[in-house]
Amino acid sequence: xxxxxxxxxxxxxxxxxxxxxxxxxxxxxxxxxxxxxxxxxxxxxxxxxxxxxxxxxxxxxxxxxxxxxxxxxxxxxxxxxxxxxxxxxxxxxxxxxxxxxxxxxxxxxxxxxxxxxxxxxxxxxxxxxxxxxxxxxxxxxxxxxxxxxxxxxxxxxxxxxxxxxxxxxxxxxxxxxxxxxxxxxxxxxxxxxxxxxxxxxxxxxxxxxxxxxxxxxxxxxxxxxxxxxxxxxxxxxxxxxxxxxxxxxxxxxxxxxxxxxxxxxxxxxxxxxxxxxxxxxxxxxxxxxxxxxxxxxxxxxxxxxxxxxxxxxxx
Length: 315
Fold this sequence. Notes:
The structure is a single chain. The protein has helices at about 1-30, 35-40, 45-55, 60-75, 85-120, 125-140, 145-160, 175-210, 215-220, 225-260, 270-275, 280-310, and strands at about 80, 85. The chain is mainly α. The protein has two domains: about 1-85, no CATH class; about 95-265, MetI-like (MetI-like fold, Orthogonal Bundle). The longest helix has about 40 residues, at about 225-260.
């Protein structure tokens, strides 16, 4: 196991290096002058040159990349011009709310998706299977940001069950129950598509496992149907489901950009939208690198978990 983990960690090095190159080049491809965007249209030529020099924009592209990469390896992500504070401090402050939202969404998607998939597989061609199939198709086909707006109009504006936006009440808020109350709508909205994907995979995997010989043998031994489903079929199907949970984590983190904007959730996604609008290059690069690195590490955990469930698999 440890040899497998070490091998996977070594493979992360070129992946993270490739991510850093892509992030850096994408920001370079954005049209316009970053210094002009930061200072505004009335900036003097002297101030523009000063900002370009501070951002390193007066240096060749390759040199700027290696300077930026070297600083990141030392834990220095630069300083945000729009916020006038270190990038790493802002990213870490925003990381907690994003992880809370993404983790809650993934938990919702995993539980609901696997339950729906198992029921649909066990009741194949029954009304339960038809019901969950329709719900899954509608969920996968619905844009998350549009669904979020519908949820706000229905459950916040019309019914008044949940807050319209934010992570807590402005006055007198901040308790656990207050945060959970604000968390429900964005977490469910963000987890709907992932729920559909997990449900479809769980159903197809369970159907495949239920046709195996060892399932027939378990039933022939007189084991209860519940024990056959949960202890034998589901346990074997989980090997194929775990990697998809890692992939859906990336989707959830990426989708958080839209959901945090719709619900005004104070996470990294909302921070990145504001940073892109203000052309805060270092803040965008730092935020994307942290999110991408987090996604890679989560997929590593998923691969290790799959290997632990079935050591024969070499992912």
